[in-house]
Amino acid sequence: MDEVTRIPVGGERPYDVLVGRDLLDPPPRLLPGATRVAVLHAPPLKELAETLGERVRAVGVDPLLIEVPDAEEGKRIDVAAACWDRLGEAGFTRTDAVVGVGGGAVTDLAGFVAACWLRGVRWVPVATSLLGMVDAAVGGKTGVNTAAGKNLVGAFHPPAGVICDLATLDSLPPADLAAGMAEVVKCGFIADPVILDLVERDPAAALDPTGPVTRELIERAILVKADVVSGDLRESGVREVLNYGHTLAHAIEKVEGYRWRHGHAVSVGLVYAATLARLAGRLDAATAARHRTVVAALGLPTSYPADAWPRLLAAMRVDKKARGSKLRFVVLDGLARPAILEGPDDELLHAAYREISR
Ligand SMILES: NC(=O)c1ccc[n+]([C@@H]2O[C@H](COP(=O)([O-])OP(=O)(O)OC[C@H]3O[C@@H](n4cnc5c(N)ncnc54)[C@H](O)[C@@H]3O)[C@@H](O)[C@H]2O)c1
Ligand SMILES: O=C(O)C(=O)C[C@@H](O)[C@H](O)[C@H](O)COP(=O)(O)O
Ligand SMILES: [Zn+2]
């Protein structure tokens, strides 16, 4: 086994994030006392889920493999309900557990299934996408999408541990690898500018899943997220900074019917949030411009159609950071100085959008 990095996440139910290669044995070890483990996966990760099922069986635990639709198609309440039916048929009790094997969509669903079953059983995400490793699997936010918007139904339910097996990235499509980098770049702007220096120095190295730069970026981003969520699981304060770029991003995803990659939407959302902060007099022009150049260097999108604005604005109004009719945006007052922009008026919001739209 390759060297394993262990990143602790604090809070009322502390756990570790394990980063390394060939890490399929830890999941059953993280769930002592379980007699059954449901392994949720989408079709692309079937083989890995089966291997995991065999490892689970080898330690005397019954695996229940549950295949769900891929990507955002699986992040639906009817899919969660079908999973609960399977757990019921198999007689899952409070000592049993759920493992989610896949990208952020599957681990968000698996965590939500675990959060609601018997009002909360243990779960472990085995993150297989870059975005899942650096973000979705860490921090205990679980949930599904609804017609009203992205992630509007969910629960805070920390996992028993998180597995980031870097070997799984070898099969991840390059577009999904780049999409995950949008969240890494987000962490660079809100907390760890070394991330930005590393990406700018060699964007190709950042996108090579077998190389040391990608691993360093992954570990740095996990450290940022672990630090934030350790002190604020339920997003009552500082955790909002992890939503940098997400107010517009989630609106884009909704307008696209959840067919755009989350990371691509976040990339556009970061450029938008930086532009908004500059126009609001909060952020200097150079740092704002740096958002566009960093994400563009990774081949990520930086703009969205101009005529979508009315639909985007309507979608942003149900953002979870909004309070009443007041929108709230995470912005930067400088590099690694995140803050909140309270209730910007519609003209300012539109002016920023005009600068990034095409
Ligand atoms: N809970 C959180 O805190 C949090 C944080 C960030 C994002 N998210 C959510 O995560 C989701 C996005 O996650 P994502 O970018 O991983 O997308 P995804 O889960 O849709 O995965 C992208 C694609 O890659 C495939 N895939 C994953 N791992 C693979 C591998 N190793 N080899 C081959 N194919 C693989 C998937 O099957 C899918 O087709 C969104 O729903 C987003 O809202 C949640
Ligand atoms: O963990 C968080 O908190 C985040 O905001 C991380 C985001 O990258 C992630 O996309 C999250 O799912 C968004 O949360 P939401 O509460 O805005 O749905
Ligand atoms: Zn995100």
From TrEMBL:
Gene Ontology terms describing biological process: amino acid biosynthetic process; aromatic amino acid family biosynthetic process; chorismate biosynthetic process
Pathway: Metabolic intermediate biosynthesis; chorismate biosynthesis; chorismate from D-erythrose 4-phosphate and phosphoenolpyruvate: step 2/7
Domain 3-dehydroquinate synthase N-terminal: 66-177
Broad class of enzyme this protein falls into: lyase
Catalytic activity: 7-phospho-2-dehydro-3-deoxy-D-arabino-heptonate = 3-dehydroquinate + phosphate
Subcellular location: Cytoplasm
Domain of life: Bacteria
SUPFAM superfamilies recorded: Dehydroquinate synthase-like
GO molecular function, one term: metal ion binding
Database matches in InterPro entries: Dehydroquinate_synthase, DHQ_synth_AroB, DHQ_synth_fam, DHQS/DOIS_N, DHQS_C
Binding locations of Zn(2+): 183, 246, 262
CDD domains listed in its UniProt record: DHQS (cd08195)
Main location (coarse class): cytoplasm
Cofactor entry: Co(2+); Zn(2+); NAD(+)
Function of the protein: Catalyzes the conversion of 3-deoxy-D-arabino-heptulosonate 7-phosphate (DAHP) to dehydroquinate (DHQ).
HAMAP family referenced in this protein's UniProt entry, alphabetically: DHQ_synthase
Family per similarity comment: Belongs to the sugar phosphate cyclases superfamily. Dehydroquinate synthase family.
Record-given protein name: 3-dehydroquinate synthase
Organism: Micromonospora inositola
Gene: aroB
